[in-house]
Amino acid sequence: MTAGGALLARMKTLGIDYIFANSGTDFPPVIEGLAEAEAKGLSLPRALVMPHESAAMGMAHGYYLATGRPQAVMAHTNVGLANCAIGAINAATEHVPMLLFSGRTPTTEKDRLGARTVPIGWGQEMRDQTALVRETCKWDYELRFPEQVEEIVDRALAIADSAPRGPVYISLPREVLCQPSPSAGIGRDAIMTATVTGVHPEGLQAAARLLAEARNPLIIAQRGAGGEAGFSALQAIADEWAIPVCQYWAVRLALPLDHPMAAPADPGPLIDKADVILVIDSLAPWAPDSHRPAATCRVVHMGQDPLYSRFPVRNFRCDIGLACEVEDGLIALKAAMEALKPAEKAAGEARREALAAANRAARARAVGQAEAGQGAPMTKEWVSLCLSRAIEGRGASVFSELGCPMAPMSLDHAKAWYQEPHSGGLGWAFPAALGMQLAERDRLVVATMGDGSYMFANPVACHQIAEALELPVLVIILNNAEWGAVRHSVLGIYPDGYASRTNAMPLTGLSPIPDFARVAEASRAFARTVRDGAELPGVIAEALRHIDEKRGLALIDVHVRP
Question: Thiamine pyrophosphate enzyme TPP-binding domain: from which residue to which, for each copy (predicted)?
């Protein structure tokens, strides 16, 4: 078969389910390979048409969050790869593995199959195409010969799925893909697999002793607990040892929000008095300019890459670094701590009662403030509370990108919450939610985002995908007609500056705002606009009925206060 067909077949052998593809003039050998496979009854990954590369990257990201299995994205030469760059930045920051491919414009002008045939063959040539994504990819390579296909795909997947995980990139010259490739070994086992990291026993025991003997221990978790078993283990540790868990800028849920040890999102008061801090998979566990642990406080970091070595500046104290899978680490830590007895049982019980009371009060305040915001326009917190009540007990997954705040919600399982990556590549939540829905057809998946984030998501492309693939996601836009995050950042640095006193802060307004409901209706989705908070619960219920009964996407454009 052609090298293009062999590439596809090898990916299927290695367990790749989908190729999220935006095709171009470099794709003829890939498309021919797909057609040949169909004609011959060969099994290949399902190739899905993505109208924009940002949607392809977001869907591969969301599919991995659902399944833990890396997928493939294929883009068109340098221009398609440029559109993949934001998604690659997000995936790298969040340790999400994927195989990223793009064609490479032909380097030959004649006399070779696959040579340049149209003017863009000259216009798309770059001296260093890989530079577009090199800083975000763990490994990159340009395919040189057709007989390399099997081993290069094996290596790419093994590296992507080895901790710390992340995207890898392969450039595919058209002339190489057009050449015949050996196919005898396409179905054999991989010649290499991802490396496995383990828990260091001595470091684990030292961390367990520190936490068990601490007077004021604290756990900070940003990226969840690794899975259901890790989620359960962390609850047991927090409960048994009366350790508060602060989910500061949480990207994934690590502890149910109504757990007695679930602390408010602001870690400041707890950091001030902490003598031991366990940091679980957190890029920025606190803000050094605002939060300063005591000089005597011992800090333990646990995660795939506890020091986040890809980032040049990240100078958080680390007395013990545990490089391991988070779920494995938490299970082992729970067992290690069970072998130790609390030094002072009475002190631990007193701490438990005080923390539980404070956490209950903070949660009651969050819910009360949300209920007070149901006017016209309503607050974001009211939208969160209404959504939380509507999906309670349904095992839903919420993707929030500058959308519904977490505090008023009731979230209680490991797949309940996914917040935008800390890299800030906007337009992530909508396609990531589509990717999870593709992987788990029976799960209720919600994408909630700001109006700016919705526009960044290339919504016309995302709605087309949702209709074409029958992905019934609930989309809730929190529409304040501005870049709210930018405005808050300005006020944080210049609270009494000139910008704070203007009627219209420069470079933050998005008025006149489009009619987002009509954008969704163009793809025959359920769409409503809500301006009065009193109407919102009923509209959410109507949208969920549409999803349950008609299996179609539903969008609610909710006008909220700035």
Answer: 412-558
Average pLDDT, the chain: 94
Model pLDDT for residues 454-492, shown as the tens digit of each residue: 999 999 999 999 999 999 999 999 999 887 888 788 888
Say whether pTM exceeds 0.90. Answer: yes
DSSP code, position 485: H
Indicate the pLDDT class of residue 545, thresholds 50, 70 and 90: very high
Count CB neighbours of 555 within 10 A. Answer: 27
Question: CA–CA distance from 549 to each of 182, 237, 466 (Å)?
Answer: 49, 41, 16
Give the span between the Cα atoms of 339 and 333, in whole angstroms. 10
What residue type is 380 in one-letter code?
Answer: K
| Cβ neighbours around 442 below 10 Å, total | 6
CA distance 63 to 471: 13
pLDDT surpassing 70 at residue 345? no
Q: Sketch out the chain's domains with CATH numbers.
A: 3-178 (3.40.50.970), 201-361 (3.40.50.1220), 372-559 (3.40.50.970)
The predicted pLDDT at position 262 comes to 98
Cα angle 338-344-349, degrees, rounded to a multiple of 5: 85
Phi, psi angles (nearest 5°) of residue 560? -120, 165
H/E segment holding residue 312 = none
